[in-house]
Write a structure and sequence with these properties.
Number of domains: 2
Strand order of the largest sheet: 4-3-2-1-5-6-7-8
Oligomer: single chain
CATH topology of the largest domain: Nuclear Transport Factor 2, Chain: A
Helix content: 25-40%
Number of helices: 4
Structural class: alpha+beta
Strand content: 35-45%
CATH class of the largest domain: Alpha Beta
Shape: globular
Largest sheet: 8 strands, antiparallel
Length: about 180
């Protein structure tokens, strides 16, 4: 009879250990655990299709399936690609004339030099992940009041975290945490 009590206890330890490992592994493990491509893999697929600067990546989960929405600036154009997050298939590519490179709010006509001395997207994500663990669902390089920033969204199943990180210094300019209503 004692053997039957040991089996459920051992199974519980294994499940709890697996959950603890999943919670500490970060964004790439969370994506691969669910059978999805990582942001880095989706970005590489997009850059094979369109050579340029990735300014936004967002993991969008809909009833039809998960897709990465990727925005690339290249040669005065903005490309929007949708990539199937499981298969890596490019589902949609849209090309628009873009006069304001890396400036999506159109509040002014400044052009941000994409060759400026900015921290990398990976470095900005690492800064954000120090304050919030979960899956990075959106990264965008933008301009706000003349300052170049990375806007990063992270979800952990309970909360949504929004960051604005200075693209030059790496300083966290904004941090918001709110309950995930999805």
């Amino acid at each position: 009879m004692k053997k039957w009590m040991m089996i459920p206890a051992l199974a519980g330890v294994l499940v709890i250990g697996g959950v603890a490992m999943a919670g500490s592994a970060g964004q790439s493990f969370a994506a691969t655990q669910k059978g999805l491509l990582t942001m880095e893999e989706a970005e590489a697929i997009a850059l094979k299709s369109v050579n340029g600067d990735v300014t936004k990546i967002e993991l969008d989960r809909e009833k039809s399936g998960a897709t990465y929405e990727i925005e690339i600036k290249s040669g005065g154009f903005e490309y929007d690609l949708d990539i199937d997050a499981k298969t890596g298939e490019i589902l949609r590519t849209e090309k628009d004339n873009d006069n304001d490179v890396l400036d999506s709010d159109d509040s002014d006509d400044k052009v941000i030099d994409p060759n400026g001395k900015f921290i990398t997207e990976k470095a900005a994500i690492k800064i954000a992940m120090k304050q919030a663990k979960g899956t990075v669902t959106e990264v965008e390089l933008d301009e706000d009041n003349g300052r170049v920033i990375y806007e990063i969204e992270i979800r952990d199943g309970k909360y949504d975290y929004d960051f604005d990180i200075d693209a030059i210094s790496g300083e966290v300019l904004k941090f918001e945490k709110e309950r995930d209503d999805d």
